[in-house]
Amino acid sequence: MRSHAQRVRSIPPTVFSEMSALAVRTGAINLGQGFPDVDGPPSVIAAAVEALERGANQYAPGIGVPDLRQAIARHQHRHYELDVDPDREVCVTTGCTEGIAAALLGLIDPGDEVVVLEPYYDSYLAMIEMCGAVRRPVTLQAPDFRLDVDALRAAVGPRTRAMLINTPHNPTGTVLTRAELVAVADVAIEHDLVVITDEVYEHLVFDDATSAEGHVPIATLPGMWERTLTLSSAGKSYSFTGWKVGWATGPPDLVSAVVAAKQWLTFTSGAPLQPAVAHALDHEPDWPRELARSLQSRRDLLVTGLAAAGLAARVPEGTYFATTDIRHLGWEDGRAFCLALPERAGVVAIPNQAFYDSAAGRHLVRWAFCKQPDLISEGVRRLAAADLTA
Questions:
Q1: CATH no. for 42-283
Q2: The whole model's pTM is what?
Q3: 3-class DSSP state for residue 94?
Q4: Average pLDDT of span 349-376
Q5: Is 223 exposed, middle or buried (0-12, 13-18, 19+ CB in 10 A)?
Q6: pLDDT tens, 232-250?
Q7: Candidates 3.40.50.2000, 3.90.1150.10, 3.20.20.70, 1.10.150.650; correct CATH number of 6-40+287-385?
Q8: Spatial distance between the Cα atoms of 12 and 93, rounded to a whole number of angstroms
């Protein structure tokens, strides 16, 4: 008897579950999966408790509770001067992962092509596959991980329907500059493409980022609002990754496509958490900025420690992550390195090859610095004391 449909048989299990389970099984320090080890603002937790106690425990509207949709619209205007209609241009999703799934299922037909930046978050691969679509990767080449505009143009063909853009970019930590985003916009307008943009790390950009402007939403560029679906969430900005409350914003025709798919996925998202996220956006607007400052110091702690351990990493401009090339240690396969690492050093990392179609990432490893400084320090101490050669 066949146990799995072809659409899931062809998709490998997520590397995050595998490596986090490895950390638990071996007792290793998890510098792999990107989740913080400290919760977000206490006032937001209190708002969730209050919502639970006052009876916000039944189905929320499918597009999200009005208070949260209005708070998201205010957030977009406050940060980016985007005027968003909370009733027609916002949909609350069960995290950005559902937003990605619903966007692709709602907009992409079998045989359509989707241009993605490689390396890509692994759910992109899974959902493009489930849509019966074809991904066209554009590789951000190590060690600089900048956008190759000629490669982007070459990836677009007559069957291309959309570009799926992630900035700030996981796993490289690249923040696309305005000039790079203008190039993406030019291609999108020239070929009449939809742009689906994953901006979950929008507020986690560091002071020394390549782009002096920090994060620039592509929806703010001329001619792009009407063809851009912007996805984000509270998980990363407010350190509530387990709450899985995200959102999609954009013109009504694109947001309605998300709603059309979401209604058959989760139908609705956690009712008592939505008022709490509204509270976060409206009443804790400075918290993500402080988080970014803290993350920058922890980034520096990790990158300095990795260099001392012989694992020099590119300094990321945003996100939770830094990337190391391990070939100088005699390793050609990042997965083999990561599987050996718990026994060698008592540390877990993520092999970047899980995020590539090509072999360009086979020798790269991702490290997370969204952990407490003491844990990072112990992790890099263990790495420095270990024999990491192949």
A1: 3.40.640.10
A2: 0.95
A3: coil
A4: 95
A5: exposed
A6: 999 999 999 999 999 999 9
A7: 3.90.1150.10
A8: 24
